[in-house]
Amino acid sequence: MNDNLIFNTEDQRGMTLIELLVVITLAGMLTGWGVSHWHHYQQSLRLEHTAQQLLAFLTRMQADANWRNRTALLWFKTGDPWCIGINQPVSGCEGYSDDLFSPHYRDVRLAEHTQKEMGFYGLRNNAQAGHIVLNNGAGSLRLVLSAKGRLRLCSEDVSIRGITACQP
Fold first, then answer.
1. Contact at 8 Å (CB) between 114 and 131?
2. What distance in Å separates the CA atoms of residue 133 and residue 153, rounded to the nearest whole number?
3. What is the DSSP letter of 78?
C-alpha cells in the first residue's frame, strides 16, 4: 500500500490544532515554573546580599573597636524600616552614617536578635556573644558573634546560596 495514502501527508501543511494546543500548554507550564523559581532565586539573592553586607558592617565595626581600643555596642531598631547601629542610638533609620546599617531591600526583615547587650570590645579584640537573624520568603540566615570575636554566617534551615545550615 502507498504510504502517502495511509498518513495523508500530501495535503498537510503545518501543525494540527491539537499539536498547537499541546505546544502552547507546555510553553505556559514551563514559563509559570520558571517565573516562580526566578522569584525565589531573587529573594535568596537579596537575603544573602543583605546578610553579607551586615557581616561586612560588623567586621568593620569590630576592626574599628580594636584599632581605637574602645567598646562598640550594638543597638537595634526593629520594624519597617529596620536598622542596626553602634554606640549612640538614633531616632530613625534615615540618613547615612558610618555607624549605621540599613538594608537596601525592604523584603529582608530583622527577625530576631539577642536581647542582651551585644558588641565588640577593643581590648584583646573580644566581643559580647549574640546572634542576629534575617529572613524573607527564601528562608532565614543567622549571623553569629562568638565571645572571641568570630563572626560567621549560617542558614537556619537549609543551605541558601552556599551558606551552610547552622550546627546545633
1. yes
2. 10
3. -
> In the 8-state DSSP scheme, what is residue 150?
-
Summarised one tens digit per residue, pLDDT across range 140-168 is 999 999 999 899 999 988 888 888 888 87
Confidence (pTM): 0.79
Q: Whole-angstrom Cα distance, residue 39 to residue 34? A: 9
Task: Give CA–CA dist 10/164, Å, rounded.
Answer: 61
Is residue 9 very low, low, confident or very high in pLDDT (cuts 50, 70, 90)? low
Which cell numbers hold the place of 4?
502517502
Q: Which CATH number fits domain 45-168: 3.10.20.540, 3.40.50.970, 3.55.40.10, 3.40.1000.10?
A: 3.55.40.10
CA distance readout (Å), 168 to 112, 118, 133, 154, 155: 17, 21, 15, 11, 11
C-alpha to C-alpha distances, 116 to 11, 67, 74, 122, 131, nearest whole angstrom: 81, 25, 10, 19, 10
Domain boundaries along the sequence of the chain: 45-168
**CA–CA separation, 43 and 37 (whole Å):** 10
